[in-house]
């Protein structure tokens, strides 16, 4: 994807990454990829906003050179120090050693810690503005969206919000970078939710604070550092992030996330009874085999569900490990305050409940009931499982 005009003198100069399989070493983006969106504002003091992961630095430098003589660059704004945005900084400094780096006070410390950079760093504060000539940048402190040093940058003349991770999403940008030029906008919305639930949801409160700060600004375009640039309907992505953030702390929609995992398919045989019980109430649900589905695809559904069915066997005195992992990730991502039931098979002494009880407390999940069965579920077990599932659905 070549540089793209946002306005006559503001350009997307970002890069697509299709070689990273696990974003942050954790989150599957093998099929979807990700974009690192950087931007160039051409003015008396020409400015770059955010960079990219080091492995794509060469292409970013090409994009910069395509649009400007690097010796003419005056500022680099670092909205966020995570190496998916700052990783190419040493490559940039080779071609633009004169550049002044703008960031928060914490960014200054991180520049030294990550790259040993101490010179040409100018600290900006919340609400400060800097004139580039025809354009003025207005900086907003937005800590924890995604790291403590994070800021957003608002370009006043055109109303463009450079929001970095906030309002971002997975998925490379193919035919167009803009929301109004997509054949399948729903795909990008879903990838934004997946990104939100993997990276940002633990910081829902900071997102809502940032959204409040943005409200009076008359944002006309949202230009994050991952995913689409929202120029036709900037409010859509702002509202989606607000809506998703508001699910935190027990306010998720009335949906059920059916998590199941099984070694030999014995526990899995009760899934139809669970589904039957849920269908009686007509509650929407989505179902995931935790052994086969990467966690990055499970978390969006879990975030969007007020109810959870955990269906998995005992394994070595505890819960089936793939399921333990999902429930531990749910804690890391602060997916607290849900209603849940447990069903699963055991061979002799059991033990899954030890983990379920402990983890329900950690997550502050209300465990409405359990159905454990010795190897095969008998007809009365199936009845109980169906009834429990109905109880869960009704409780939402
Ligand atoms: C590796 C392994 C470890 C197990 N550990 C326990 C255990 O500690 N306690 C127990 O009661 N059953 C244990 N079981 C028995 C299973 O919980 C039981 O066979 C169950 O029916 C398997 O259900 P699944 O096919 O849904 O995985 C273990 C089974 C396997 C294969
Ligand atoms: Fe980040
Ligand atoms: Fe990022």
Label this structure with key terms.
396 residues, seven-stranded mixed sheet, Metallo-beta-lactamase, Chain A, 23 strands, alpha/beta, Rossmann fold, binds flavin mononucleotide, 12 helices
Quick rundown:
This protein is α/β, with parallel strands linked by helices.
How would you describe what is shown here?
- The chain is of the alpha/beta class and 396 residues long.
- Helix content is 34%, strand content 23%.
- The protein is built from 12 helices and 23 strands.
- The strands form 6 sheets. A 7-stranded mixed sheet has the order 1-2-7-8-9-10-11. It has a 5-stranded mixed sheet with strand order 12-13-14-15-16, with helices on one face.
- The mean pLDDT is 98.
- Bound molecules: flavin mononucleotide and fe (ii) ion (2 copies).
- The site of flavin mononucleotide has 20 residues, from β20 and β22.
């Amino acid at each position: 994807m070549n540089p793209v005009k946002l306005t006559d003198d503001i350009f997307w100069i970002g890069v697509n990454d299709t070689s990273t399989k696990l974003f942050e070493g954790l989150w599957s983006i093998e099929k979807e990829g990700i974009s690192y969106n950087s931007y160039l504002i051409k003015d008396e003091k020409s400015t770059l906003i955010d960079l990219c992961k080091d492995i794509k630095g060469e292409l970013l430098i090409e994009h910069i050179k395509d649009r400007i003589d690097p010796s003419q660059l005056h500022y680099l704004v670092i909205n966020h120090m995570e190496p998916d945005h700052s990783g190419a900084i040493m490559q940039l400094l080779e071609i633009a050693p004169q550049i002044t780096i703008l960031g928060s006070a914490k960014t200054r410390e991180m520049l030294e810690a990550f790259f040993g950079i101490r010179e040409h760093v100018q600290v900006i504060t919340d609400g400060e503005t800097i004139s580039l000539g025809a354009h003025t940048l207005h900086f907003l402190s937005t800590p924890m969206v995604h790291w403590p040093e994070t800021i957003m940058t608002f370009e006043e003349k055109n109303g463009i919000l450079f929001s970095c991770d906030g309002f971002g999403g997975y998925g490379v940008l193919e035919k167009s970078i803009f929301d109004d030029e997509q054949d399948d906008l729903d795909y990008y919305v879903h990838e934004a939710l997946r990104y939100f639930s993997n990276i940002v949801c633990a910081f829902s409160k900071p997102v809502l604070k940032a959204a409040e700060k943005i409200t009076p600004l008359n944002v006309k375009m949202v230009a994050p550092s991952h995913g689409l640039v929202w120029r036709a309907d900037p409010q859509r992505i702002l509202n989606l992030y607000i809506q998703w953030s508001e699910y935190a702390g027990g306010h998720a929609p009335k949906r059920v996330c059916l998590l199941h995992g099984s070694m030999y398919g014995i526990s899995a045989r009760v899934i139809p009874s669970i589904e039957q019980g849920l269908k009686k109430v007509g509650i929407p649900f989505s179902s995931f085999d935790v052994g086969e589905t990467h966690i990055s695809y499970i978390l969006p559904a879990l975030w969007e569900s007020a109810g959870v069915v955990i269906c998995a066997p005992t394994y070595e005195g505890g819960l089936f490990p793939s399921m333990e992992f999902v429930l531990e990730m749910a804690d890391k991502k602060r997916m607290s305050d849900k209603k849940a039931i447990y069903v699963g098979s055991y061979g002799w002494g059991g033990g899954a409940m030890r983990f379920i009880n402990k983890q329900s407390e950690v997550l502050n999940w209300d465990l409405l009931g359990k159905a454990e069965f010795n190897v095969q579920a008998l007809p009365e077990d199936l009845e109980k499982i169906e009834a429990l599932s109905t109880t869960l659905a009704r409780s939402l």
